[in-house]
Amino acid sequence: MRRLPTRRSVLALIASLVPAAAVAEYPDRPIKLVVALAPGGPADTAARVFAPYLSDRLGQSVVIENRTGASSVVGTEAVVRAPPDGYTLLFGSSSSFAVNPAVMKNLRFDVQKDLKLVGLVSYTPHVLVVRASLAAGTLKELIALAKAQPGKLSYASSGAGGAIHLASELFKRETGVDIVHVPYRGGGPAVMGLLTGDVDVFINDASTTAENVRAGKLRALAMAWPKRSLLLPDVPTFAELGFPRVVSSSWFGLAAPAQTPPDIVARLAQAMPQVFATPSYQARLEKLGLEQFELNAAQSSAFIKAEFDKWAEVAKSARITVD
Q: Of 159, 216, 220, nearest to 187 (Cα)?
């Protein structure tokens, strides 16, 4: 019986038929940059900083389209299924590339096989904050308070099975505390829960949390990154406080459908260092509390693999799965 061609083989055939001249002229029309998370969030902010500079380097408009749903699955899948011609790209997050594959067992695509990473763009470290009225002025005091009252303190997340949930479970595992998970529908409501005193602890993006810390509405106790953040330079890292394995961040990268011609992927990859080297781009990142990756292709792939492995381990130990 004759076997029907697979979707992947069909896409490979399409890619092989792209005329050489078309690749050489790329891009000759606007590019759609799909952001798989909600407008106004860190991924959207990072994309809107990055897009105009990429547009300048490519000589074509780069138009952002927010495709939200299912913790970035909807937008990611839209790019996986898009024609592999370089005109639909993913501005993906740690959720797209590492967290979802670690916790979701029924994904209809394989990120590693169905997307081609162009490069990592920027990140924001996570910071642990507590409500201002909590009787814990340091991480040591928070841990002591939690251990003295197991199961009484609570922590917020922006959704069950998401990056913030896993980061919080990593903190629990490494410090040995028992605090209760309270999931919210997004980062904004989670912050409000902390400000109103409904929850006690939140591990969140430093870029979106620093303002409330500076205003005295929240108290920052530890930065979940190997080095201190320029945004909150007085906040020590978990490593400084004796917990070097508590490392987490929200990070963002550019990817294309897997069968995109190599010349197009190379054209995009060549534009990225030019964007990163632009002083005005660097200034905008710093103002927003975002930090720039300085990794080559091999280092980027290794970083993503390490992130997947870490979150898969955390999800397994905390028994976190998402259907």
A: 159
What is the rounded distance in angstroms from the CA atom of residue 57 to the CA atom of residue 306?
31
Task: List the structure tokens of 16.
Answer: 């092989």
Contact by Cβ (8 Å): 94, 304: no
* 7-124+250-318: CATH superfamily: Bordetella uptake gene, domain 1 (3.40.190.150)
The Cα–Cα gap between 135 and 113 comes to 48
What pTM does this model have?
Answer: 0.89
CA-nearest of 178, 141, 168, 154 to 248 is 168
For domain 125-223, give the fold.
D-Maltodextrin-Binding Protein; domain 2 (3.40.190)
The amino acid at 1: M
- Return d(Cα 127, Cα 218) in angstroms, integer: 11
pLDDT digit string, tens, across residues 114-147: 999 999 999 999 999 999 999 999 999 999 999 9
Is 157:302 a contact under the CB 8 Å cutoff?
A: no
CA 91, CA 252: separation in Å to the nearest integer? 7
pLDDT digits (tens, 9 = 90+) for 47-94: 999 999 999 999 999 999 999 988 899 999 999 999 999 999 999 999
| R_g over Cα of the chain | 21
Instruction: Please count the other Cβ atoms lying within 10 Å of the Cβ belonging to residue 137.
Output: 11
